[in-house]
């Protein structure tokens, strides 16, 4: 595809200056100007991507993959398509400036020509010169104690179990938060880079939302909806959790993992939820693979993979339609969905905000083959507000759940980020 003449591109042969911007430069420039930015790395890929939106207050849009221009979506959990009161709650970062960084952190940048782009480059030129390496964050992170948190969580799980034993619903995912304080405001790009290195199979991202004063950072293992350049649709069900390590620290072998009946049932419910969504649109031509044990950082899960060739089934809008039907899946909400959603709202005392929503690039050229959209469930994430980080973790409950074990599971999930950002 030929680049548009109104887009200026810095390529390896065409530099606008003697210094080429790296991801920290572009992130910091966006931050200085109050522009939203998203930085991400797709699972099993090396290139990192960054977009900057020149809209300081992000538009709330319908998550329509067929209509939206290139950009990045990030949706709250509390964003049900049946909620007619506030139907469009997904935040959209339009790709006004777009950069791809190769493994050497060399940028190829493209941006639409105009006043805002000029302002951006001026601000970049005025950035203070790169500082020597900052000290690492180790020993500079304090976990803030929340005395009643465990007791409250355990009580809520016990109530959920009783409700499920009475037959009120089959599954619910209850979450909690854990707060940590950095001694100094951490560099989001450094945290992002550490996560990329630690978790090559995760979707790793950092999203800066200046209007909220928040940066969300995550390393999620859960794909929600992808449509690649050839029109291949992908989704997956993910549930069931155990440590990826033996008590002596040796890594477990995924094919030999043992799963309890509770975990098999918990994942089967997510699977059934996805199949029900296909049934609603009478789509039978999906390929289902699994369940298989997968590694997600320090943890293992059960996952089933679904693919559909949207060209073969002549359903080009499948991604958009399934996104509307799937979110929030039974991996973060429960079944039946609306009953579980109400239980969560009645029992969780924190606002989930963007945790357990979805996020990812839409209509972005990720390869030479054309534009693709890749949306993930926003788990294994934290919200950064200055020096304060709030980590979020949930556990899928069934009538067989043991409350204290579920609390332990959320602790392990918090460790996915904590063990990396504290190094
Ligand atoms: C809700 C979360 O994880 C979900 C995804 C995989 C396994 C899960 C579980 O075993 O409970 C959860 O359903 C989370 O990490 O906050």
Structure in a nutshell:
This protein has 423 residues and is an alpha+beta fold. Helix content is 26%, strand content 33%. It contains 8 helices and 22 strands.
Describe the model.
Pfam families: Chorismate_bind. With 423 residues, the chain is α+β, with helices and mostly antiparallel strands. It has two domains: 7-119, no CATH class; 141-205 and 222-356 and 365-421, Anthranilate synthase. Helices cover 26% and strands 33% of the residues. The protein has eight helices and 22 strands. The strands form two sheets. Strands 1, 2, 3, 7, 8, 9, 10, 11, 12, 17, 21 and 22 form a twelve-stranded antiparallel beta sheet that branches. A hairpin with a 2-residue loop joins β19 (364-367) and β20 (370-377). The chain is globular. The two termini are 42 Å apart. It binds the ligand C=C(O[C@H]1C=CC=C(C(=O)O)[C@@H]1O)C(=O)O.
Topology:
Elements: E1 7-10, H1 23-33, E2 37-41, E3 48-52, E4 60-61, E5 71-75, E6 90-94, E7 97-101, E8 107-112, H2 115-125, E9 141-143, H3 149-165, E10 171-182, H4 188-198, E11 203-209, E12 214-220, E13 223-227, E14 232-243, H5 261-280, E15 287-296, E16 299-309, H6 318-326, E17 334-335, H7 337-347, E18 358-362, E19 364-367, E20 370-377, E21 381-385, E22 388-397, H8 403-421
Antiparallel strand pairs: 1-8, 2-3, 2-11, 3-7, 4-6, 5-6, 5-18, 7-8, 9-10, 10-17, 10-22, 11-12, 12-21, 13-14, 13-20, 14-16, 15-16, 18-20, 19-20, 21-22
Helix pairs in contact: 1-2, 3-8
Pfam families: Chorismate_bind
Domain Chorismate-utilising enzyme C-terminal: 152-413
Protein name: Isochorismate synthase
């Amino acid at each position: 595809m030929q680049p548009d003449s109104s887009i200026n591109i810095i390529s390896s042969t065409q530099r606008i200056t003697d210094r080429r911007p790296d991801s920290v430069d572009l992130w910091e420039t966006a931050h200085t100007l109050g522009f939203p930015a998203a930085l991400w790395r797709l699972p099993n890929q090396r290139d990192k991507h960054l977009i900057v939106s020149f809209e300081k207050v992000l538009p709330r849009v319908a998550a329509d993959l067929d209509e939206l221009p290139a950009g990045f979506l990030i949706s709250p959990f509390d964003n049900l398509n049946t909620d007619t009161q506030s139907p469009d709650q997904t935040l959209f970062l339009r790709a006004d400036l777009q950069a791809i960084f190769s493994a050497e952190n060399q940028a190829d940048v493209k941006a639409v020509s105009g006043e805002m782009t000029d302002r951006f480059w001026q601000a970049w030129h005025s950035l203070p010169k790169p500082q020597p390496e900052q000290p690492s964050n180790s020993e500079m992170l304090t976990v803030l104690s929340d005395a009643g948190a465990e007791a409250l969580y355990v009580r809520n799980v016990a109530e959920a179990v009783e409700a499920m034993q009475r037959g009120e619903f089959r599954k619910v995912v209850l979450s909690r938060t854990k707060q940590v304080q950095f001694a100094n405001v951490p560099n989001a790009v450094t945290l992002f880079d550490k996560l990329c290195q630690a978790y090559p199979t995760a979707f790793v991202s950092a999203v800066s939302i200046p209007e909220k004063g928040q940066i969300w950072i995550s390393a999620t293992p859960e794909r929600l909806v992808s449509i690649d350049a050839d029109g291949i649709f992908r989704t997956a069900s993910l549930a069931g959790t155990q440590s990826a390590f033996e008590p002596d620290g040796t890594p477990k072998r995924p094919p030999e993992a043992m799963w309890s009946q509770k975990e098999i049932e918990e994942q089967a419910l997510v699977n059934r939820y996805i199949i029900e969504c296909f049934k609603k649109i009478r789509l039978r031509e999906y390929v289902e693979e699994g369940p298989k044990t997968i590694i997600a950082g320090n943890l293992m899960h059960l996952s089933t993979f679904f693919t559909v060739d949207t060209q073969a089934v002549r359903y080009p809008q499948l991604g958009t339609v399934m996104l509307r039907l799937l979110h929030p899946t039974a991996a973060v909400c429960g079944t039946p969905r609306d009953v579980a959603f109400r239980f969560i709202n009645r029992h969780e005392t924190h606002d989930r905000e963007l945790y357990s929503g979805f996020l990812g690039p839409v209509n972005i050229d990720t390869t030479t083959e054309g534009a693709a959209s890749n949306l993930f469930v926003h788990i294994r994430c934290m919200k950064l507000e200055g020096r304060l980080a709030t980590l979020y973790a949930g556990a899928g409950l069934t009538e067989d759940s043991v409350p204290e074990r579920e609390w332990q599971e959320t602790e392990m999930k918090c460790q996915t980020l904590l063990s990396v950002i504290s190094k």
